[in-house]
Design brief:
CATH architecture of the largest domain: Up-down Bundle
Distance between the termini: 19 Å
Helix content: 55-70%
Oligomer: single chain
Radius of gyration: 25 Å
CATH topology of the largest domain: Alpha-lytic protease prodomain-like
Shape: elongated
CATH class of the largest domain: Mainly Alpha
Structural class: alpha+beta
Strand order of the largest sheet: 1-4-3-2
Length: about 300
């Protein structure tokens, strides 16, 4: 029979509590900042308020995902709900692309139709917003980190940059009267946010597509497994991420004889756990002859 080793990741309630606290702070100030941006006429401030409103949705989604992750496996979802963190991160990344596009378009429109901006009001509200964003970032940055928290933190960091941009914009307008600085900084913040968003989107899609986790080389794992006593070769090797902190592997191993299976399985699981951090394995023993692992360094494909 195949050998299994299961060590499901555990998620403490701390992530949900941190996300809920961040949600309360962010949502409360979003309305204050939106009102201040409308009164002052600042696009940078309105853009930051838009960020914070979208962040409130993102943080709420992340808090829901943190709750779902802690639910036990069921007959319908035998792996549990660990992938909810990936879904939340993916949705948050797509949401941020929409926010970046909206603010970028508004900034371009502002270049074509300049508007008066009350720099002093902008500075005051942006300074308070910066303090709140720093507090929220500190709350989320202390504790477990996974794709879900990364997605929420990305929104908060975008808000933080937005507050810095709005504060800078207000100062420049107060001391120089040069209003184009407002849309210029809004575009700069959009660019910075876009870079981080694309990275999060890439990582989330990689997990959804069950790609080999970054930092693990599949041929290297196969050859290491093939060096275990009484293992002739390894084929049909697959490695993927279940959720943050939980990596799964399935493989067929060809043995000298099935009488060596118990000791070989123990050594294989020990190797995978200690050398590669793989804690969820399904290994099928076989007898016969296969050539994929061990082999030359060119043997990097999948054997069937």
């Amino acid at each position: 029979m195949p050998g299994h080793e299961h060590d499901h990741a555990h998620y403490g309630p701390g992530a949900g509590g941190r996300l809920t606290a961040a949600l309360g702070l962010t949502l409360s100030f979003a309305f204050v900042e939106a009102l201040g941006g409308w009164i002052s006429g600042s696009l940078a401030l309105l853009g930051d308020a838009g960020h914070m409103l979208s962040d409130s949705f993102a943080l709420g989604l992340a808090a829901l995902a943190a709750w779902a992750i802690r639910q036990p496996p069921s007959f319908r979802h035998s792996y549990g709900f660990g992938r909810m963190e990936v879904v939340a991160a993916l949705v948050n990344a797509l949401l941020m692309l929409g926010v970046v596009g909206g603010i970028g378009w508004a900034a371009i429109q502002r270049f074509q139709a300049p508007a008066e901006v009350q720099g002093g009001t902008v500075m005051l509200i942006a300074a308070v917003g910066l303090a709140i964003n720093l507090l929220v970032a500190w709350i989320l940055g202390h504790g477990e980190q996974n794709l879900n928290i990364r997605g929420a933190l990305l929104h908060v960091m975008s808000d933080l940059l937005g507050s810095v941009a709005a504060l800078t914009s207000g100062a420049v307008i107060v001391f120089t009267g040069w209003t184009p600085i407002d849309p210029i900084l809004a575009l700069l913040v959009c660019l910075l946010i876009l870079i981080s968003t694309v990275r999060l989107l890439r990582d989330s899609l990689h997990v959804v597509l069950e790609g080999v986790p970054f930092g693990i080389e599949l041929p290297q794992v196969g050859r290491a497994m093939a060096k275990i006593d009484h293992v002739q070769s390894v084929h049909d090797l697959h490695i993927w991420t279940l959720s943050s902190g939980s990596i799964a592997l399935s493989a067929h191993v060809v043995l000298d004889g099935l009488q060596h299976w118990e000791s070989a399985l123990e050594q294989l699981n020990g190797l995978l756990r200690e050398e590669f951090g793989i804690d969820h394995t399904t290994i099928q023993p076989e007898t016969g002859f296969h050539i994929l692992y061990p082999g030359s360094p060119e043997d990097t494909g999948q054997g069937h």
